[in-house]
């Protein structure tokens, strides 16, 4: 199986015609993406956090498939999955209607605010560089590199919205493979989409799946529907699940996220002081441990 590495992501062939682009710490990706060669069409699933990373994905996808990109899919509205859209100006960009609406409402202000605060970003990077000089902390080094990628992207970043929307599903028929894009509504975001390739039993999950990592909850997340969606997907016929964050996974990883949220909901119903709680053993070695406490507090807010 083909494997390609660059500073933004590691490209892994997970099946015939299907490639996962797994984000690397310190690069400009910030989340996973990938592409599918259907034979006479090539689909991109998500476009990373920066144009630099997305350009690399486009280059590899066109070189490997031998054709131009036909479709770009945005799984949800968060910036780390859609900011590379501008690299595909002549492509059909597809999202759910809700994702389109949220992108149009929220992203312009966020992007403008970051563009206007480039000086502040540079000051913050310099402060981190001073800390790195004193501590030699590898995590801080990766954070600096990612922030520099963001800094480099902002001056030429233009929000590129989806050109086509769908309500519940959209089907692609290629000469070699087919693919089905679905949404079951809210979960991690107000509307999360996933792409299923039945012939190869592969599914691109977007941020409905985090592997070996604490998932992130927001004020517009819906934990109950997130769990219900994952439970339904456990009945589907697939072997490989490409998450929004973390390494390529399997059905077992969907079960772990269900267990995580079930346990988190149970803990949130207790009167314990969240600041005194320890992360349960099954999740102690997951990345982004700071999210556990934040998720617990967010879940309590969502339950009110």
Polypeptide structure, described:
The chain is α/β, with parallel strands linked by helices and 304 residues long. The protein folds into 2 domains: 3-102 and 159-303, Metallo-beta-lactamase, Chain A, CATH 3.60.15.10; 107-156. It has 7 helices and 13 strands. It has helices spanning 51-65, 97-116, 118-135, 138-153, 223-233, 251-268, 290-303, and strands at 3-5, 9-15, 18-23, 33-37, 42-45, 71-73, 92-96, 164-166, 169-173, 178-183, 193-197, 202-210, 240-245. It has an 8-stranded mixed beta sheet with strand order 1-2-3-4-5-6-7-8. Strands 9-10-11-12-13 form a 5-stranded mixed beta sheet, covered by helices on one side. β5 (42-45), α1 and β6 form a beta-alpha-beta unit. α5 (223-233) runs antiparallel to α6 and α6 (251-268) packs across α7. The chain starts with a strand and ends with a helix. The mean pLDDT is 96.
């Amino acid at each position: 199986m083909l494997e390609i590495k660059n500073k933004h992501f590691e490209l892994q062939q997970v099946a015939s015609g299907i490639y996962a682009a797994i984000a690397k710490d310190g690069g400009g990706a910030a989340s996973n993406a990938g592409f599918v060669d259907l034979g006479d069409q090539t689909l991109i699933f998500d476009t990373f956090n920066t144009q630099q990373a997305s350009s690399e994905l486009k280059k590899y996808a066109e070189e490997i498939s031998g054709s131009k990109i036909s479709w770009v899919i945005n799984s949800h509205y968060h910036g780390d999955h859609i900011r590379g859209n501008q690299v595909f100006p002549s492509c059909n960009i597809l999202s759910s209607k809700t994702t389109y609406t949220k992108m149009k409402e929220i992203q312009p202000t966020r992007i403008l605010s970051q563009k206007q605060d480039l000086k502040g970003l540079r000051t913050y990077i310099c402060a981190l560089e001073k800390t790195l000089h004193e501590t030699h902390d590898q995590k801080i080094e990766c954070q600096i590199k990612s922030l520099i990628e963001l800094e480099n992207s902002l001056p030429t970043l233009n929000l590129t919205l989806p050109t086509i929307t769908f309500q519940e599903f959209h089907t692609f028929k290629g000469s070699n493979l087919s693919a089905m894009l679905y949404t079951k509504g809210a979960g991690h975001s107000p509307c999360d989409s996933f792409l299923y390739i039945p012939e190869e039993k592969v599914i691109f999950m977007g941020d409905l799946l985090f592997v070996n990592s604490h998932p992130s909850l927001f004020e517009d997340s819906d934990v109950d529907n997130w769990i219900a969606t994952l439970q339904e997907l456990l009945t589907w016929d697939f072997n490989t699940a490409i998450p929004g964050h973390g390494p390529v996974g399997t059905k077992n990883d969907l079960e772990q996220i269900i267990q995580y949220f079930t346990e988190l909901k149970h803990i949130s119903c207790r009167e314990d002081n969240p600041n005194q709680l320890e992360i349960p053993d099954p999740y102690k070695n997951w990345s982004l441990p700071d999210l556990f406490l934040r998720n617990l507090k967010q879940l309590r807010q969502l339950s009110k």
